[in-house]
Amino acid sequence: MRLVAEFTTEPFDVEGQPPAHATEALRVAEEAGLECDFGPLGTLVRGEQELLLPTLTGVLEAAFASGASQVTLQVRRDG
Hints:
Distance between the termini: 10 Å
Radius of gyration: 12 Å
Largest sheet: 4 strands, antiparallel
Number of helices: 2
Structural class: alpha+beta
Order of helices and strands: EHEEHE
C-alpha cells in the first residue's frame, strides 16, 4: 500500500535558509528513496508502506538531532 506522510519541524524560521532540522529530515527521506516535496511549512513524502514507515524513524531522529523542538506528523493512504 502506498502512503503519504507530511511532517513539520519546529521551531519555524521564516527568514533566510531553511533550518538544519528541516533539511536533515528531508535528506533522510530522500536518501531512503521516498518521493519528496519540500515546502516552507512542511515536507510531504510518498512511498510504499514497507519503505515509508521505517524511514519515518530516521526522519524524526534527524530532526531532533539537528535542533527540532517538535515534529508534527500525519500519515494517510495515498489516493
